[in-house]
Design brief:
Helix content: over 70%
CATH superfamily of the largest domain: f41 fragment of flagellin, N-terminal domain
Number of domains: 2
CATH topology of the largest domain: f41 fragment of flagellin, N-terminal domain
Strand order of the largest sheet: 1-2
Number of helices: 7
Radius of gyration: 39 Å
Strand content: 5-15%
Number of strands: 4
Largest sheet: 2 strands, antiparallel
Length: 278
């Protein structure tokens, strides 16, 4: 009889179960708030954890593509700006030649001046290098990863042009190499015009390549933003909601603790009353 009376009552057992449940919920919420993740391992939610990790893999690959696009943009920008500088110098050469001709300056006098400007182009071309890639001095196309499709890299190929061996550019170089006595102001003007057009054409190509890279970069950035948001929505803790729930649960936890204390105390009092005098 004593054993039956001293065993936990139904009310006490119920209070203990409620408190255990509340303690577990509070512990889970505290962990979610501390880590910032409501799904941190497969144990938390296997399906969501698996999906989030798949998206994280996609995001990691896209970030690599974004870095590659950044390198591509800089490589093309260096080539484009170098060509634009050469076009400007060629146009200045043309203007200078015309001015000297108008002023009656001897051709041989300004020929060497123009040749010196042309000779400087070699340094401009060789200096158009970014991270070891020069699109203006070799004939090998440069390839850049611009995205992934089901794990397979998507690449963008940008042609490389050896500017110095271009038809018009090479002809102008030969003309300067032959000396003032072997050419005329008219021939020089024609050769400079041809070199301007040829260099402009290359500048337009690299400008178009830059636009394609910019477009792809914008797409990758937008995709990465969306992937990041999707991952966050799947696994991150909503701090406002979690904090509110934690406060409510802690209040219930306190009440449950008090209730358990009361039921335990009442049972103890009952036992003492029943067996008083024994």
């Amino acid at each position: 009889m004593l054993s039956a009376v001293s065993s936990p009552s139904v009310g006490t057992l119920s209070s203990m179960q409620s408190l255990r449940s509340l303690n577990k919920q509070v512990s889970v919420l505290q962990s979610q708030i501390a880590t910032g993740k409501r799904v941190n391992t497969a144990k938390d939610n296997a399906a969501i954890w698996s999906l989030a990790n798949s998206l994280k893999t996609d995001l990691a690959m896209n970030k690599e593509a974004a870095m590659s696009l950044s390198v591509a943009a800089s490589t093309v920008a260096v080539a484009s700006s170098s060509l634009e500088a050469i076009v400007t110098d060629l146009q200045n050469m043309k203007s200078a030649a015309a001015q000297h001709h108008t002023n009656g300056t001897a051709f041989a006098t300004y020929f060497d001046e123009l040749k010196q400007t042309f000779d400087n182009f070699e340094g401009v071309l060789s200096g158009a290098t970014f991270r070891g890639t020069n699109l203006l001095t070799s004939g090998t196309a440069a390839s850049f990863t611009v995205g992934y499709n089901n794990g397979t890299a998507i690449t963008l190929s940008v042609a490389s042009n050896n500017v110095a061996t271009g038809t018009a550019y090479d002809a102008l170089g030969d003309l300067f190499a032959s000396g003032a006595g072997s050419t005329s102001a008219t021939d020089l003007g024609i050769a400079i015009d041809a070199a301007i057009n040829e260099t402009k054409s290359l500048a337009v190509y690299y400008g178009s390549a830059a636009n394609r890279i910019d477009t792809r970069t914008s797409l990758i950035q937008a995709l990465n933003d969306n992937l990041g948001s999707a991952i966050s929505n799947l696994v991150d803790t909503d701090m406002d909601e979690a904090s509110a729930r934690l406060t409510a649960l802690q209040t219930q936890q306190q009440l449950a603790t008090q209730l358990l204390s009361i039921t335990t105390q009442n049972q103890s009092t009952l036992v003492q009353t029943l067996f008083r005098g024994f």
